[in-house]
Every structure is written in structure tokens, then in C-alpha cells.
Amino acid sequence: MKDFSAYFTMKETDAIAYATTQLDMFDHNAELTCTEIGDGNLNFVFRIQDKKTGKSIILKQAGPVARISSDIAVSPDRNRIESEILAIQYKLAPGSVPQIYKFDSVMNCCVMEDLSDHVIMRKALMEHKQFPLFADHITTFLASTLLLTSDVVMNHKEKKDLVKSFINQDLCEISEDLVYTEPFYDCPRNEVFELTRAFAKQHLWDDEALLLETAKLKFEFMTNAQSLIHGDLHTGSIFVKEDSTKIFDPEFAFYGPAGYDIGNVIANLIFAYINAEMTMDAGPAKETHTSWLLETIGSIIDLFQDKWNKLWDEKATDRVAQYKGFKSFYLSNVLKDTAAVAGLEMIRRTLGLAHVKDVTSIADDAKRSQAEKFCLIVGKRFIMEREQLTTGAKYLEILKAGVQHD
Questions:
Q1: Cα–chain-centroid distance for residue 384?
Q2: Which residues pair with 241 in a beta bridge?
Q3: DSSP helix/strand/coil, 306
Q4: Which H/E stretch holds residue 333?
Q5: Rounded CA gap, 92 and 142, in Å?
Q6: pTM of the predicted protein model
Q7: Contacts of 185 (CB under 8 A, 6+ apart)
Q8: Distance CA 140, CA 274 (A)
Q9: CA 13 to CA 34: how far, in whole Å?
Q10: CATH class of 119-405
Q11: Spatial separation of the C-alpha atoms in residues 149 and 222, rounded to whole Å
Q12: Domain definitions of the chain by residue range
């Protein structure tokens, strides 16, 4: 019998043994099968199913190093963080995240609800599918999880206890390096598409004004314990189907700037937009898909503000939060961070270590380079003009100007 009293990295057969001996979720005569389904940069993810009943679960295990690079050591405590934040988000935004059934601190794994009836949003968007309810779903999740974990609403001592619990040093360091630092110089660890390199040097690496702004943003990220954020909220961390949106994989969670999560969502929808622009043939299908993506991007910015303001009026507890003008001041800073992070994400996914398939899958080299230059120019504008990006319409102006620039 397999011994799970000491940590080791599991394989599929081990995951079945774990489900049989460590969980009370299947019948004693279940016929269990297991498939490793994870394709991420950090973890091992297994789907375990009973062939007789169809019942299934997900088992996710954290390893001691990142799968993307053995040079990146990461604490397995991230699995504890993920389990706990999903439990918090499950309460704050019911129906928006998978349910957690168990966390095992020895094996550094968690067991959660299987969402196999959903699809990964990035994959669905690259197949040019639309999800009309997504903007409504994601803004409800963002407003609820970001505002309700802030000092505006929470007891300040309880919030500070959460800040301590979610200090996530290793994964924050990854973000500090891969998002805020390495994309902005010719770092040896970067993976730069050769047709884009000269453009990156001219427009980003040699632009001292831009570099100064990224330094300000990096230290904002490191010091602003504003809200309990997901920390890596891209379209590869979202499951969707026509009537449902589920956010998962919050292992980068910590207390940081609220705009970080919103900006990541926006940037990854823009990746889907530029993918469609470069890969779809001209015609009604392309027009429908790109129009929906642009509408969704704009709607997220505007709906988020509406829901945030309504929730603030209902839930704010701190006396000074009621002072005239403070709500708009606070929200304006969240929106400023949103724009900046959208720009950072677009740039780092183009020039850094971790790219996105929306862009790398563009087979035509010239079109891929065109897409990457679009991301760099738009991303730079988002950073430099972040104080003006207060409505969805302003984002769309820059996106349309970026396409014309190409």
C-alpha cells in the first residue's frame, strides 16, 4: 500500500491510490481512472473518475520547483494559500469558484470540484466562441472579492491577520521579476521573438520615461496591501460555459493592489482580440467575434465601477469611507492600477519568460510580429496614460488606434 505520510511528487497511479486510501468520496467498489490534465507552469493536476458512476474530482499537487523552469524554486505552501482563498471566494462570490473538498499539508495537494463540463476560456476564445454573460459574471466576482476583503469593509485587525496568512513570498517574487522587471530590459531569461526584438529595444528598453513608471508600479505592487487578489487572473485560469464562469488557480494570491486582477482580465481579452484580428478571415464571423470582444472589454471596465459603487454604499463600514469624495478617490486609484497592470501583462507576455498561445500560435511570422508590436504599443500607452483610462470607451479608443498603428 502506498505511503502518503511523507511528501513525494505523485504520478497518475499514485493519485488513484491517494483517492482510494485518503479520501472518502468514492464507493468501495469504484473503478477509478486517472489522467494528468495540467499543462500549467507550476503544478501537477489529475482528474480522477469512477468509470461506473461517472463521479469525478480534481487533485492538484504543488511541486518544489516551477515546471516552467527548474531554476525557479517555489514554496509548496502555495497550495494551502490556493485552498484557503478559494474557500474565501466561495463565500464572497458564490458560484464563481470550484468547491474545495480537502487540503493535505503533507502531500501539498488539494482536492476540488471537477469542472470538466466547462472549458478553459483561452482555448474557447482561440476557437472564436463568445460568452455573452462573461462580463456580468467576472465583474460580480471582481467587485465582491476585491472590495469585501479590503479595509473599507473588513475589521482592520481581521484584515491584517489575513495579510499575514497570505504572505506569498516565492510567487510574489516571480511576479516582481517576470511582470515588473525582466520584460523591460534585454534579460537573458526573456524569450523574445526575433522579428520583435529591435522594436522592443527602441520603444521600451531604451525609453527611460517608461522604465521610471514601471519602477513606480513595481513598488506599488510590493507595498500596497489593498485587497486579497487572485494574483494570476488570466483566461487560462477561468473555466467557462454558456451560463457559467468559474475562476480557479489562485496560487499567486496575496494582499496587493485591487487593480491587478482587473488588469489581467482585460489584457488577456485583448490577446484574444489580436489573435482574432490576425488569424480570422475577413467577413461576418470575424466582425461578430472582434466586436463582442471589444464590447466585453469595455463592459468589464464600466460594469465593475457600477457594481463596486453599489457594493461600497451597501457594505462600507469604516467611518471615513463615508466622507464626500473618498469613494471616487479610492476607485480612481483602482482604475489607474487596472490600466497599468493591463499594460504590464501585455508587455510581459510578449517579451518575458511566460507567453500566451493567443500570440505564439499565430503561424505567419509577419502577423505574429505585428500582433506583438500591437501588444507592446498598446501596453505602453496603458501604462503611460493610466490616469486617463477611466471608462471602457477610453480603452477601446487606444485599441482601435493600436490596430491602425500596425
A1: 22
A2: 244
A3: helix
A4: helix 326-351
A5: 10
A6: 0.91
A7: 205
A8: 26
A9: 7
A10: alpha beta
A11: 18
A12: 12-113, 119-405
Give residue for cell 496575496: 254
Integer CA distances (angstroms), 380 to 73, 373, 406, in order: 30, 10, 15
Task: Find the angle CA(271)-CA(38)-CA(188) to the nearest 5 degrees.
Answer: 60
- Give burial (CB, 10 Å; 0-12/13-18/19+) of 269: buried
pLDDT digits (tens, 9 = 90+) for 71-120: 666 776 778 888 999 999 999 999 999 999 999 999 999 999 999 999 99
d(CA 328, CA 333): 9
Contact 138, 144 (CB under 8 A): no
- Phi and psi angles of residue 70, each rounded to the nearest 5 degrees, phi first: -70, -10
Residue 155: burial class (beta carbons within 10 Å; 0-12, 13-18, 19+): exposed
Q: What is the pLDDT of residues 17-58, one digit of tens each?
A: 999 999 999 999 999 999 998 765 678 999 999 999 999 999
Helix (H, G, I), strand (E, B) or coil at 206: coil
Closest CA relative to residue 294, chosen from 382, 403, 376: 403
For 12-113, the fitting CATH number among 1.20.58.1370, 1.50.10.20, 3.60.15.10, 3.30.200.20 is: 3.30.200.20
Q: Measure the CA–CA gap between 392 and 225, rounded to whole angstroms.
A: 26
